[in-house]
Amino acid sequence: MSLNNFIPTVWAARLLENLNDAHVYVNLLNRDYEGDIGGAGDTVKINSIGRVAIGTYTKNTDIAAAETLDDSQMMLIIDQQRYFHFQVDDVDKAQQKPKVMTEAMREAAWGLSDAADAAVATALEAGVATLAPDNTLTAATAVGTGATNQDAYEILVDLGVKLDESNAPQDKRWVVVPPWFYGMLLKDPRFVSFGTAQNLDRLKNGQIGEAANFIVAKSNNVPLSGAAYTVIAGHSKAATFAEQIPASAVEAYRPQLRFSDAVKGLHVYGYKVTRPYALASIVCTQAT
């Protein structure tokens, strides 16, 4: 039995679709430069313009000479490379082969996605801590419903204030919380009863919803140190992500020393915190 009908471009597209479904942190970032990459080792030069000075005009008085714009350049390097490689033995039921391969590809997609999401979460945590330390809130007390516990919803409000102070855009703000934190929000009527029909529909369908001007997402990849979780909030422009699964890097073949079909694929990607001021974070522990 062989994979003569295996079409690399089709399987590559299917794998990428599964990845996009599974991403959490990655889906909250912008993909502004994804069309500029082709594979591992590519580097995208990102140009940015500094602040433009604003002067006061006085009638019949010459204005200042034109300033020279301050430009800077960052590099988005596609330096992350992960792969999958599995085989299905011919002894397995022939009629189950298509299902086996499809499920295996789905599992491969989830694994690659999880690795990328965890890496991006770590980069965001480091970005706000080192590049925008003023946006790192003092560690919160344990989050819960007790009298001495920190309120989960109010933490979101505090994160929003930090982003306001940094002039981060109001739209497309997001925050990623661990499942237990999300559970605390579900106990708060300010979250569950948020007044728009759109948000109520999201909650009804098991999606996360919105609160305190944030799109709220949950993930098991929230950075964790001991018992302390770093809850990160931000805007879609805070960081960029670019990925590729080249069709030429998804291959089906017959291993020479096995009676089986094998598939291997390569996922290449890169990420960069480009506007750290559009990030904020707080360290939380779960109340016991």
Instruction: Please describe the biggest sheet, giving its number of strands, its sense, and whether it closes into a barrel.
Output: 7 strands, mixed
- Give the CATH topology: phage-related protein like fold
Percent strand: 25-35%
Content-based structural category = alpha+beta
Task: Say which CATH homologous superfamily is assigned.
Answer: phage-related protein like domain
Mean residue pLDDT: 82
- Radius of gyration, CA atoms, in whole angstroms: 23 Å
Q: What's the number of helices?
A: 6
Report the end-to-end length measured between terminal Cα atoms. Answer: 56 Å
Topology order in helix (H) and strand (E) letters? HEEEHEHEHHHEEEEEEEE
* Overall morphology: flat
What can you tell me about this protein's structure?
There is one protein chain. By secondary structure, the protein is of the alpha+beta class. It has one domain (8-50, 68-286): phage-related protein like fold (Alpha-Beta Complex). It contains six helices and 13 strands. Strand 11 and strand 12 form a beta hairpin. Helix 1 (8-22) packs across helix 2. The longest helix is centred in the middle third of the chain and has 35 residues, at 97-131. Residues 202-207 have low confidence and may be disordered.
Layout of strands and helices, then pairs:
Layout: H1 8-22, E1 43-49, E2 71-77, E3 80-89, H2 97-131, E4 142-143, H3 152-165, E5 173-177, H4 179-186, H5 189-192, H6 197-204, E6 210-211, E7 214-218, E8 224-225, E9 228-235, E10 239-244, E11 250-253, E12 260-273, E13 279-286
Helix pairs in contact: 1-2
